[in-house]
């Protein structure tokens, strides 16, 4: 039963496969054949396939037998019709030949007529189309001519009219398509050409910026010159302003060639020196093609880059005004061009853009000037740079640019200029001091007297009636120093000119600079002078006399400053010159200088512990030296001589006190104090001998009072009186301070501690030691602010 079912299933499967083969396209029977080969009954399937083939063959044979008779009849009818068809064909050929022969002439005439009508229609159409195309071609030719003539803006306008008006009417023609395709290329070509012209313009402007700036600054300098001449006609100071003017105008042009080339250009403007047409053309062309924003961005970017290049300073500007001038010319030329573009093509750059560019330039310029102007080592170069900056600022101010920072910079440079002047005048002062002979001047004739009075305001009763040669109390450096001070003031005034300062501000600056000259430069030079070891006492005395006359001439310096500034001393904003105090300090320093000759006695040994019964040798030599030199002081004013003598005594007293209290001296013996007492007595004898007349009684002796009271206290060992009367105005030892007494007492105590130990066994020595310790303890209590124990 199982075998039967299997066979039935196989038969059904073979039947299905055969049905698929019969109903499926031959190209897709692969799947059915695969199913056959996947089974195991290949032979059985082949048998069934053969049976199916035989069945189909029988069906075909049966169908052919059924239709055979009808086929035979159809063939017979077709054979009969073939003869009739052949006859009809021959007749048709004959008729067609006859018809062709009869209609050949008609056809020819008809073709001629059609051809004529076609030609007529074509001519009319061609005339119509040509009448439409001719303006286009004429306009295109016109545009080509404009391109050749360099009239690019007109060519662009023609191209725009051609594109918008004429070409749309005849767009169907091939040449119109070619034209339409060429229009963008022509526009780009015009843009490229105009851009090239703009680049050439930018390059030309960059190369000619210095020339444009030079012309602009020259015009401003000429205007200032005219204005200054007008002011001079109403001013009381024409000489000074004229001198300054002569320095301002030449400083604009660095060389003679430049100066001569500026002659015919003094009335030129930026548009006369540079052709701005490429800018306007490019602006209009880019605006016409819709790329104005692109052009504006490109122009501003390029000019900003050029501004950065212009603002880069030359490699070497130190002491080189020509380099500064060329640098300023380029900057002025750049902004003159930009200002011209702003006013003639306002759509290209705005005021804000130009102001931002100026702020960037101003910041860079100030930084450069703050750095490079410091390297000007001489006043002439610095003044030329200052004048260039003034004209540079005035030029840009005339074009509407804010320049207040530049004038602020000039005020800062004023300090550097002042330092340069001070260094220069310091050298001049030292040269004058080195060349002076430090002897009173002698005037042999009226010419020399007149020459002196022109340089120095000397006044003395009876001077004009004296006989020649007339002797002056001061040496030659007095009028020379006075003249240099006036020249310094004029140099300061020269810098202040053209800075748009009020007379009060100018006066204040001049006075401050003059005070620096007096307090720093001249005072330092005088101090260096008097400290020269080569100067003798006679020269020092002459220097004292000279400083006295310079001190008396300070009021004439005040009057000179007033004459050039117009501001009187004592006004609300006027500072007073400190010349009097400066020369007074210098004279005081000079008066103390002779006292320094006694400084060598510091190396002498006081504390050898022996006494010779008289003053020390070094002190006797010192006093002999002072007595000899004080005789020279008879040429000095009495006050000066007295001051020098008093200073000498006080100096000796102070040095002797320093030696007593010197920390390096640990032990002082009573024998040394006795010797020291003899030295002080010798000093007192010297002060009593009145080495310089004119002192009040006891005035000079007061210099040694402190030493005398200190020695009396220790030599008499009168501690009970000192301690009892301490703090009282009637004390015998009023000038002896507890600290001084304690210091010297401890040195004596230390000396006693170094004595032989057997001396301490004496009752008297023990009492002295006890008393000494008691006094030391009480002095320490006073020094520490405690009351004296009872």
TrEMBL record:
All copies of domain Exocyst complex subunit EXOC6/Sec15 C-terminal, residue ranges: 406-747
Gene Ontology annotations of biological process type: Golgi to plasma membrane transport; intracellular protein transport; vesicle tethering involved in exocytosis
**Which domain of life does the UniProt lineage start with?**
Eukaryota
Give the matching InterPro entries.
EXOC6/Sec15, EXOC6/Sec15_C, EXOC6/Sec15_C_dom1, EXOC6_Sec15_N
Alphabetical GO CC annotations of the entry are: exocyst; membrane
State what this protein does.
Answer: Component of the exocyst complex involved in the docking of exocytic vesicles with fusion sites on the plasma membrane.
Return the similarity comment: Belongs to the SEC15 family.
Protein name (Swiss-Prot/TrEMBL): Exocyst complex component
UniProt source species: Ciona savignyi (Pacific transparent sea squirt)
Q: What is the lineage of its organism?
A: Eukaryota, Metazoa, Chordata, Tunicata, Ascidiacea
